[in-house]
Backbone:
């Protein structure tokens, strides 16, 4: 697939960011919202007692189109 220089530049920015991304943060896609989440005190993705991602650990959201679906 051919991509534009702008698209390749955006991909490169994300790859560079990935090399310095703090281990205390993770990304979660919820209904098309890309959420920045903090890990819990055990170094894991924080979950509620019933097995859902705990929204109390959401720090921010990023306006990049996304989908949390599977292939």
Residues:
């Amino acid at each position: 697939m051919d991509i534009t220089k702008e698209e390749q530049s955006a991909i490169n920015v994300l790859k560079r960011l990935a090399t310095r991304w703090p281990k205390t943060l993770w990304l979660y896609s919820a209904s098309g919202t890309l959420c920045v989440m903090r890990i819990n005190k055990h170094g894991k993705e924080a979950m509620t007692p019933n097995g859902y991602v705990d929204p109390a650990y959401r720090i921010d959201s990023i306006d990049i189109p996304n989908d949390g679906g599977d292939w």
Summary: DSSP finds one helix and three strands in the chain. The first strand starts at residue 25 and ends at 30.
